[in-house]
Amino acid sequence: MNVVLQILGGVAGGAAVGVVFAWAGRTLGTGLANGWGDLAGVVVGGAVGYLVGIAPGVAIVSRLRRLPGSAWLALGASLLTGVLIVAAAEPLRLNTIPSLLQAVFVVLPPIAAVFAFGRRGPATAG
Hints:
The protein has helices spanning 2-29, 37-64, 71-88, 98-117. The chain contains 4 helices and no strands. The protein is mostly helical and 126 residues long. The longest helix has 28 residues, at 2-29. The protein has one domain (2-117). It is globular. The relative contact order is 0.17.
């Protein structure tokens, strides 16, 4: 049950931060690229914001449930998973079905972030 709540928290956090980043991207891109800059800003800003926002969402739910973990590991896992999905979109033909690519982009990064959040680092001698 905790894992499901953490994943949902990651999706909610990603959505919230994604909206803010999309708005910022639209604002920064307005008037650029022959009028397409605002659209590009929304898409890129929303995607990056979603990936960045997953870690705080996972961390907040985890803290409320008193689960130990590292938000930094969750952030790294979320960003790495997003980069791997974008890189694998062409070879795996994910880009031919936009709804599949979107589903993979929404679902896999929070799952990776949750498992990275709960991972313990190497034990230190002491």
